Amino acid sequence: MLTSIVIITFNNLHKTINCIQSIRTFTSLPYEIIIVDNGSLDDTVPYLERLGGLTIIANKRNRGFAAGCNQGMKVAKGELLLLLNNDTIVSHRWLDNLRLTLESEPNVGIVGPKSNWVIPVQTVKPVYASEAEYHQFADAFNRHDPLKWREVTCLSGFCILFRRSLYKRIGEMDESFIYGVHEDTDYCYRTIRAGYKLLIAGDTFVHHEGNSGFKGGSLDMNAIAAYNRRTFLKKWGVDPDRLAYTCDELFLPENRGPAVKTSRLPGGILVKGAGDTIYYLERGRKRPIVPGDTFFCFGFRRERIITVPDNELSEIPDGLAIDYAGPFPAYFPRTFVAKDSGTGVYVVAHGIVIPIASYEDFIAMKFSADEIVQIPDAYFSGLHYGYGPGLEPDNACQEYELIDYKLYEAPGGGLYYSEGLELREIADERLFDCYKWSPERVMRLTEEQFAACRIGRPIERAAGEK
């Protein structure tokens, strides 16, 4: 079975040469190499044309990683597709082991190796100081061992192997992600939502220098990462860094299988059936609230609980429990108001920390004191910072975020409820009574903010409510 190896290049010819030489030296299975050059200014294209044995696509400009991969996959002949960075060096049994991992089960979607420069869950600390030592290390490391495989929520796109059938099912890479950050996260996320697994081949190691495409040009990696992260958030309502850097299996049940449809009921509300369990609705799932202090720690109020028929409650898929004593952030709501050990108050939304600069801003955002949740300072260290009313961004990595579970009025009229970075229309004002919302908590959107928002499914009345 042929494997089509797609390599995107942008300058750094010497690294591309090393990569190709390592493939030709250490690959025993049938393969082809497809080079997509993104407008290199060095001698990359002429040299590779002289080298021979390659399919070369030469772009006149840098079209980005996603577009380059799409070009390569379109001309690929293999039943297996492998995307490989040009600043990698492969070694003994690398492709053999990756294929064994991929072909272990029909529902394995994408596999990737361990490396020295990659997201934390795939990282192995290098114990070599030269290329010769690396190959010695890899010869010992790359021994087939399924016990070292691990299912995760994301794989780094520096080296990923998947079947052509997956490519046909979920489509091309999303070219709205510019240059080279989070388009791999998006592809992995789409794979999970289609019902497939992502596996780390923990018995395979590939050397990776890392970020060479940025080092070889004048691209601003921080600005690109910020833009692409915002693109992912707007598309999925999920923080891609949470998937890539947490890689916690606790998130897999929420993301596995067909996309969770937005419930006709709004998120951010408390519901119960005939039993005693109280649920918090969030992104189309019902999350049971662990009995005890959790209910009050998160500022929930019993007068805001809505009783719904058991048959309607049973139709809402289950989610992870809400538990103040559980692991952070998996067992916490996706959006809440947090306080540190000092005087800082923040909105934590989708893994983003939005500082609230003043009491006036707190009031403008329509929060109340009983919503504030005290959390350990250590929890803040793994989150990313955005900005809210009254604050300006310090750098390109900070973006304005639409806060979940807030009531908004559009510039031309019309009421909306925010959920998953979408606005859900409130067509009937009687829904305010149904869901115990207060008109005093409605905020006004600017035309620019409203134009940037996606419009989601309208909110409907809960069964049994008049």
From TrEMBL:
Q: Which domain of life is it from?
A: Bacteria
Any Pfam family = Glycos_transf_2
Key word Repeat present in the record? Answer: no
Q: Entry's CDD domains?
A: GT_2_like_c (cd04186)
Please list the residue ranges annotated as the Glycosyltransferase 2-like domain. Answer: 4-170
Q: Which UniProt keywords apply?
A: Transferase
Please indicate if the UniProt record lists Transferase as a keyword.
yes
InterPro entries reported for this sequence:
Glyco_trans_2-like (IPR001173), Nucleotide-diphossugar_trans (IPR029044)
The molecular function GO annotations come to: transferase activity
Identify this protein by name: Glycosyltransferase family 2 protein
